[in-house]
Design brief:
Structural class: alpha+beta
Helix content: 25-40%
Distance between the termini: 93 Å
Largest sheet: 6 strands, mixed
Radius of gyration: 35 Å
Number of domains: 4
Number of strands: 28
Strand content: 15-25%
CATH class of the largest domain: Alpha Beta
CATH superfamily of the largest domain: ATPase, nucleotide binding domain
């Protein structure tokens, strides 16, 4: 099996890791950062931007820049809450009730999976550059409390990025893998994972390379962004009372508020009070309006009391399902950047008496764990075993709208469970099987994963036909449903694919469109790279010319300087005329000219390091030029063909002192 990477696909930031020499390492992106912002954007010229480049245009181009996409993946429009829709770009529902994101720059709508696929592709490209080889497979992490639809949607996003998903791994489990990777002792670990958009808690036993997950719980609509939103609302409400203007209705103002809130939240982890200054945030009757506020830690914590309460219930539920008490926990591992908030750490201390472990980087630990799992799948690591669980119960809708659970939550996976059902009406020719996921008694209160109809049942009284329905959950936590008519012996298998926002036809259409436009995209990218490289080289040439004038004087390396100037002028002309065909040749000529100038500068530095060398070279060049034969061949003051008047042999009265033709 080839190289497999591990991807932490986060709401705010994403990270990619790989196993090298038996150790997991995080791969830095092309910008040099170990984390990549999970932001996708399009410029006014419809150029795709991913990561830090997209994040930079959040304020100036909010309608074409998309963040917090993970909250939309695999969810229908009816499932979204108000906080999820508090974004600066446009989100709408299509005819099927699925979430679609509108991009004015490209004049089209995108499924969240399509945009998330661009983030995955960016991570893979950076990893391929680092490793020097192509990557075709990956382990992708998701929140432990992601349902089947969200897991399938994540897999679809990876498919759109051209990557095969070898394993979908729960984020807390990945963090435990990273934490217990090189530990031989046996311990009971609580993983508290509070990211930018989701919250998970998992309890597991780690012993001699065996990772046994006991229970998991969480909230996929609770994360650091909700804490940011409280600061945004506090600032906006104050501004509304003072100026009667709601900044949340202005896209650019909302984005500026969001960035200021995130920065204030981060700073409050280290100080007791932070100033918030946003000049020219709006315009009133009397001119520009500004925000000048001061937020202290106690005020921030008072704004987030209900959010802290929402963190309590999943922890208590996970402890109850595992059968452990808080005193049984040996280690607490904090995962996610939002766990740096002092109030969150204090909450964890009140739940579990142990001091949280600070030995892992909360931003990178999930990617490291995914890289460890990738090493297990590739065979590079043979002494580790992972036993995971399913986060939510799975079942069927029965008569009266009740949900019949076949696989309870926290069941170890992979797993297969089956049960026998019958008809509710005499001579019923078919039965509809409706698959649900959740913990409520009524099926309608849970998440619908899909439905299918089993036909061809022979006529029989009510309750006589027997239909055996089997649920299969693989190691990725993905569900397959099969049905067998035991009366006739006929068997039918059905895959539940309706949970994703994209069906297979839409996925194939997007892939075909990307393939058909691959050559155009490649040519466009090559032309942009050529222009950028040419502009960079011209800037370097200008700097080297200035350096040469200072070190050697204006005439110290005249031939080399002139060659650089001519080549630089050719490149600039081709850039102005947008002649990219000849630009590559002109760039090569400029590179050769720069090489000659740099070689001349290096030679001069070796011969003489005197700071007055530039002046010496200037006068030396002038002297050589003045007294060379070539100089006097075309000298306008050459008197060989003129009437030469010798002052010593001419009478004084014939001399005109203002006669320039007379040699004195």
């Amino acid at each position: 099996m080839g190289r497999i990477v591990g991807i932490d696909l986060g709401t705010t930031n994403s990270v990619i890791g790989v196993l090298e020499a038996g150790r997991p390492v995080v791969i830095a992106n092309c910008e040099g950062s170990r984390t990549t912002p999970s932001v996708v954007g399009y410029t006014k010229e419809s150029e795709l931007l991913v990561g830090q480049l997209a994040r930079r245009q959040l304020v100036l181009n909010p309608r074409n820049t998309f963040s917090n996409l993970k909250r939309f993946v695999g969810r229908s429009w009816d499932e979204l809450d108000e906080n999820s829709l508090s974004v600066a770009y446009s989100v709408r529902a299509n005819d099927q009730g699925n979430v679609r994101i509108t991009c004015p720059a490209t004049e089209r709508e995108y499924a969240p999976e399509e945009l998330v696929g661009s983030i995955i592709r960016k991570l893979i490209d950076d990893a391929e550059t680092y490793l020097g080889e192509s990557i075709e497979s990956a382990v992708v992490t998701v929140p432990a409390y992601f349902n089947d639809a969200q897991r399938q949607a994540t897999r679809d996003a990876a498919v759109l990025a051209g990557i095969k998903v070898e394993r979908i791994l729960n984020e807390p489990t990945a963090a435990a893998l990273a934490y217990g990777f090189d530990r031989s002792s046996s311990s009971r670990v609580l993983v508290f994972d509070l990211g930018g958009g989701t919250f998970d808690v998992s309890l597991m036993r780690v012993s001699n390379g065996v990772f046994d997950v006991k229970s998991t719980c969480g909230d996929t609509q609770l994360g650091g962004n909700d804490f940011d939103q409280r600061i945004v609302d506090w600032l906006a409400e104050q501004f509304l009372k003072k100026n009667s203007i709601d900044l949340r209705r202005d896209r650019q103002a909302l984005q500026r508020l969001s960035e200021a809130a995130e920065k204030a939240k981060q700073e409050l982890s280290g100080v007791q009070s932070v100033p918030i200054s946003l000049p020219f945030i709006a315009t009133g009757k009397d001119g520009p309006l500004h925000i000048e506020a001061n937020l202290d830690r106690s005020k921030f914590e008072s704004l987030c009391i209900d959010l802290l309460d929402r963190l309590l219930l999943p922890v208590q539920t996970a402890l109850s399902d595992s059968g452990w008490s808080s005193d049984d926990i040996d280690e607490v591992v904090l995962v996610g950047g939002s766990t740096r908030m002092p109030m969150v750490q204090q909450l964890v201390r009140t739940l579990v008496p142990n001091q949280p472990s600070q030995s892992v980087n909360p931003d990178e630990v999930v990617a490291i764990g995914a890289a460890v799992q990738a090493g297990i799948l590739s065979g590079d690591l043979r002494d580790l075993l992972l036993n995971d669980v399913t986060p939510l119960s799975l079942g069927l809708e029965t008569v009266g709208g009740l949900m019949k659970v076949l696989i309870p939550r926290n069941t170890p996976i992979p797993v297969r469970q089956s049960d026998v059902f019958s008809t509710s009406v005499a001579n019923q020719p078919s039965v509809e099987i409706h698959v649900w996921q959740g913990e409520r008694q009524l099926a309608a209160d849970n998440k619908s994963l899909g439905r299918f109809r089993l036909s061809g049942i022979p006529p029989a009284p009510r309750g006589v036909p027997q239909v055996q329905v089997a649920f299969d959950i693989d190691a990725n936590g993905l569900l397959e449903v099969s049905a067998t008519d035991r009366t006739t012996g006929r068997k039918q298998s059905v895959n539940i694919n309706g949970g994703s926002n994209l069906n297979q036809d839409e996925i194939n259409k997007i892939l075909a469109e990307a393939k058909s436009k691959a050559n155009d995209d490649r040519r466009r990218r090559a032309s942009i790279d050529s222009r950028n490289n040419a502009l960079t080289l011209v800037a370097q040439a200008e700097r080297r010319l200035r350096d040469a004038a200072l070190e050697l004087g204006p005439y110290g390396a005249e031939r080399q300087q002139r060659a650089v100037e001519i080549s630089m002028r050719d490149v600039q002309d081709l850039l102005d005329s947008n002649n990219l065909k000849e630009l590559e040749l002109a760039v090569s000529s400029l590179q050769e000219a720069l090489f000659g100038l740099n070689r001349r500068l290096a030679a001069e530095k070796r011969t003489d390091s005197n700071p007055l060398q530039g002046i010496k070279n200037t006068f030396g060049s002038l002297k050589d030029e003045l007294f060379s034969d070539d100089y006097w061949d075309d000298d306008p003051w050459d008197y060989s063909n003129r009437d030469y008047i010798d002052r010593r042999n001419s009478p004084r009265r014939d001399l005109d002192p203002w006669d320039n033709d007379i040699y004195r």
